[in-house]
Structures are given as structure tokens and as C-alpha cells.
Design brief:
The structure holds 2 protein chains of 2 kinds. Chain A contains no helices and 10 strands. Chain A is mainly beta. In chain A, strand 5 (56-58) and strand 6 (62-67) form a beta hairpin. Chain B is mainly β. Chain B has no helices and 10 strands. The chains are: A mainly beta, B mainly beta. The interface between A and B is medium-sized, with 30 and 27 residues.
């Protein structure tokens, strides 16, 4: 089922450092995963996606890692910048594909 | 190109009133989704439209919620007899095709029920 929570985990990093945001997903049949970034007052913004036939995918300054054995997803942000401060959500689409099931989210704070 | 747009951006209403929220998906996108994001909660799926197929309404929380999509484009989410617990951000997303494709979100409508 969905992950919900009143208190989101927070990751604080120094500007220029690398960030790693983790996500555990629930459905072993899920085969498509997306990371979204949500800034205050805005809708979620697509960052990167990965399909279950891959275990790593790289974008510009971001890398997503997928470990299907332990149902774990991570987002790595290289050289984190103040503009990266936001809430980050992982989302999965299951075997019947269509609706996204979101994780609870992680707050990323970048200190200058 | 233009992204997903939603209106109004903010809506304040009194308990018991009906509200309509509008979504304009990205042109050419065949699939349209509604999600809700409550304060302190994650995003939860409400309803999904694909072409002329019957919508997937499995996420609608009660029969006070309904949605339609006219002409395969614009969608309206209606909440009847609003309750305070309906206060949330209502997000619309669209994807070019259904299934395992990226869903692009609009800015959301912030609904406050007094």
C-alpha cells in the first residue's frame, strides 16, 4: 500500500556535496519507477525514471539505482546545489500499470 | 511546449458547497490522472482516464467525488457537499500513452474547505 506519514525524513547536505535519497517500495511486481522533485507550492516535477530490466540509469547530475532483490530505489544527486532543495518522491507503477503509487517523500535541504 | 495546466490555483469554499476543479492536459496526451495530496500525507491516486475507455475510479474516496473528461482532453473533478477533510492539493497529470510512461503534473489546485 501507499506510504504516508506526518513527518517526512530530512536530509541536510552541504552545497557541493553528493546527496543520496533512498526509497523502499512495496510491490515486487512493480516494473517502472520514477523520481519526482516537488518545490513548495508547485506540482511534482519529473527527474528520472528506470524500468525493472535495468539496475542503474544516469541523467544530468542524477543517478537512479534499483535493487529489485530488496525492493530499494535510490536517487543520487551529484554536486548538490541550493536549487535542489525540495521534497523528493519515488513512485512506482505496478503490474496493471497506470496509477502511480508514491512513497512518503524526503525533504532535501542544501546548506550554503 | 505548454505543460499541464489547472484552474483555479486556489479555492476556498464553505463546508457543504460543491466545487469544480479543471485540468488541461498536455496536447496529444491520451492518459489523464487525478491525485490528491493532503497536508502531511503523500500523493494518492483518485481517478484515471484513457481515451474512450471507462475510467478507473478505484481511488475516489467517496461518492461525493466524480470526474469527467470531455472530448478526450479537458477534465473536471467535482466534489459535492465538501467536507473539511477534503482540504488538500488536487493534482492532475497526463502521459502520452497509458501504462509505464512518465506522468507530467500540473501545479495543482489548493482547496480549503472552511
Amino acid at each position: 500500500g501507499e506510504s504516508v506519514g506526518l513527518h517526512l525524513p530530512t536530509l541536510s547536505v552541504q552545497e557541493g556535496d553528493n546527496s543520496i535519497i533512498n526509497c523502499a517500495y512495496s510491490n515486487s511486481a512493480s516494473d517502472y519507477f520514477i523520481w519526482y522533485k516537488q518545490e513548495s507550492g508547485k506540482g511534482p516535477q519529473f527527474i528520472i525514471d528506470i524500468r525493472s530490466n535495468m539496475d542503474k540509469r544516469q541523467g544530468q547530475r542524477v543517478t537512479v539505482l534499483l535493487n529489485k532483490t530488496v525492493k530499494h530505489l535510490s536517487l543520487q544527486i551529484a554536486a548538490t546545489q541550493p536549487g535542489d532543495s525540495a521534497v523528493y518522491f519515488c513512485a512506482e507503477i505496478g503490474e496493471y500499470g497506470n496509477k502511480l503509487v508514491f512513497g512518503a517523500g524526503t525533504i532535501l535541504r542544501v546548506k550554503s | 511546449g505548454a505543460g499541464v495546466s489547472q484552474s483555479p490555483s486556489n479555492k476556498v469554499t464553505e463546508k457543504g458547497k460543491d466545487v469544480e476543479l479543471r485540468c488541461d492536459p498536455i496536447s496529444g496526451h491520451t492518459a489523464l490522472y487525478w491525485y490528491r495530496q493532503s497536508l502531511g500525507q503523500g500523493l494518492e491516486f483518485l481517478i484515471y482516464f484513457q481515451g474512450n475507455s471507462a475510467p478507473d475510479k478505484s481511488g475516489l474516496p467517496s461518492d461525493r467525488f466524480s470526474a469527467e473528461r470531455t472530448g478526450g482532453s479537458v477534465s473536471t473533478l467535482t466534489i459535492q457537499r465538501t467536507q473539511q477533510e477534503d482540504s488538500a492539493v488536487y493534482l492532475c497529470a497526463s502521459s502520452q500513452n497509458p501504462g509505464r510512461e512518465t506522468q507530467y503534473f500540473g501545479p495543482g489546485t489548493r482547496l480549503l474547505v472552511l
